[in-house]
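Provenance and format

Records in this collection were gathered into a single text stream. Each protein contributes a sequence line and a token line. The two records reproduced below are adjacent in the stream.
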Amino acid sequence: MSEDTTIGKFTRRDVIGAAGAATLAVTVPGLAQTPGRRPNFLFIMADDLGYADLSCYGRREYQTPVLDGLAAQGLKFNHGYANSAVCSATRVGLITGRYQYRVRVGLEEPLGNRELGLEPSHPTLPSLLKGAGYHTGLVGKWHLGWLPDFGPQLSGYDEFWGIRGGGVDYFTHKVNGQPDLWDGDVQIEEVGYMTDMMADRAIEYLDARGGEVNRPWLLSLHFTAPHWPWEANDAKGRAESARLDEHGPTIPGSLDITHFDGGDMETYAGMVTSLDMNVGRVLARLAELGMEQDTVVVFTSDNGGERFSDNWPFTGIKTELLEGGMRVPLLVKWPGLTLPGTETDVPAMSMDFLPTFLAAAGTSPHPDYPSDGVDLRPVLAGGTLPERTLFWRFWAKDQKAARRGDFKYLSIAGEEYLFDVVADPLERANLKYRRPEIFESLKTAFNDWNEGMLADPNASSYRFTPRELADHFGWDS
């Protein structure tokens, strides 16, 4: 780790203090939310965070005391899944509560076409909660379409502050030389490290909600960290930002911020620990405002990690339907529902939070757009759910996956597999021939499900190649 222990305006002492507050909260379990009041929802999403990138999930090179404390206060999912192996597709599943393949924009992996976006007419988590009397805000990454036809405030958010695209430089807030920072529909210029700035704005949102004590709210806090470019909040990170701003992409045809000639383990540690510390700042303010016991807190990632991430004990990374590309950290603290320090092996998916939040708010999905997700509250209370089959698709390399119980059907470029992902999380032992009945059942289920989903051969789908990552030498055929 760098000797520079100051991150933005805050030091590692602040991180330790936030972790201590989290530990203290564990000593007073079972506090219920205010009787008769509907819960607030704070949904925190990291970007490209690997399954084991938090120390409570196994990271060894650094510590994440705030998020470890959140796990100690609530429920840790061991089988949390993103809806996709890339960001914008997962965000479609999250905001609609449905498989992203039901809408055209959800086929983009990820979204880059400025003619496409989430249609404002489609009911969403924020629009449905807003209709039920909630105030709704998004701070951070949108990546579901550009103005003038698409945007957060056209899809149910009362407020938006953040970026509209897939990522920006942490210091210049630009991508390919173009700024992408917005306050509502107004493009703005501000100085600061992006992770700090998002936490600053989230705290401002909480302060405003503190003056509306009787109105519940949803805050979607979608950080860009630890998505590339690889820039921690230190002198080295600022130097890299200046270099990228001056020289642009290092691989012809790529984005400047993809940064394939940058990064290292120390930098990545700085990015994740900054994320952890800033989550701590937001949670501390929530407690200071007296809203902690009325607020559900969820922390997760939009897909698996890549390059400097730790996805152990899985193989695969972002853009791949191996477990490492879509199994993600998932922590939920729900006062009066989750028990401190508990874990579950029940699988959950990004799209499950729409029906879960709506049910708790006393409303339901639009009847014309039924959710593909399920209400997770029985799991959060320590129970289980009826067995279900979960499905994924990824256009690059014609990837397909279905999971039911311990078993997963996987197809990549026509090669088919059956894995017991509980006994064999590395996905090494192909049980296709040993358990043919399970293999055929899952394959048939996938094909039946897939017939009801949209398909477009012109949709974009990103994958890594040997030009970018040496360990993908076989993925260019």
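Adjacent record:
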Amino acid sequence: MRVNQAFRFELSPNEGQRKALAQHIGAARFAYNWGLERSRKALEEGKRLPSAAELHREWNRWKRENAPWWTEVSKCAPQEAFRDLEKALKNWQKGKSRFPRFKRKKLTPDNGARLTGSIRVFSRHIGLPRIGKVKSKEPTEKLLKLLEEGKASILSATISREADRFYVSLTCEVERPDPKPKEVRSEDDVVGVDLGLSSFAVLSDGTRIEAPKPLAKKLKLLKRRSKQLSRKEKGSNNSKKAALRLARLHRKVKNLRRDFLHQRTTWLARTKPVIVVEDLNVRGLSRGWLSRSVADVGWGTFLRMLEYKAKWHGATLIVAPQSLPSTRLCSRCGHLHGKMPLSQRVFRCEACGLEIDRDLNAALNLKAYGLAHLTGPTASSAGSHAPGDSSGGGTAPLSRSTSHGSLKGEAARRQPLEG
């Protein structure tokens, strides 16, 4: 099968290349803001939003008189920025996201530029349009071998800057061997994964995965460095040094979290034939009083990684709907309980007397949902994925104590966070 896969390398540019990389990133950010300003003006005048092609044509006319630096950067940087803006505006029109904001130099996600065209990979070097052959700090032999064998082709290159370091992410279309679907021989091959905050994840087999919580561990130091930055005179060299120290610390927190998520998702996809998780409303949870803790564990990134890695390794990923009250449902008798505050870490069933850790109870309920999904009348084959399916492809064993309709009513009254 052919999949889109990114290969990310840290670059080691010389002074001229550092300047060229920064110019391309700045040009992309400037063009995005330029196009956003004209899009906002079109809305105020009641006109149709301009497309990426229309913005690019207008940009070509405008830049010759107002942006003399345009000859120093590749045309791809502003062109791809307009395409990103068009996509953001369409998502806003569909109600999927908020209206786009202006990009800022001080924010790490806004320091990036996508390039297309002549992109080549050499041993320990990456060839980029208008920038040239830039040395890589990491080996490129794996990707180079795939390119030479014809098993991969480069679609685009995204350059980014984090603190004082530059990176390039090569988006490639890669030919991967078709994974052999993992055979489900017993109920033990189905594992429910309950995500939480006290523990990152609890599996139905009793395995407990603790989160590194890099933000919580570095929060005191982050506050100290933020305070040091605020006390510096703006624009001074000391202010720039303090800002760089703070940015480096933020980069370290991000890398620790990302490395943890990659390790755990790869382990689950390789070792578990069937994985059952809950469809969490991460965006809604990130707006509540637990927003910092939710952002620190990275649930959204975890689910996204688990989705594509399950396809790569032949595992079946089942996503239970948000209407499933996995925390309040007894995993033994199916009795549905009332509200459970986060401080109550032990689930006690009033019907059968079961006492069990609340996270393990939820994981067992997810496992039961996955078994019903596989054995139900609309069971899916191995390797399939059912995100956002309110039915889940089968009938969950919830009718023992209440009807499915009443469960939806109960779900509407659920607490903002369960688990």
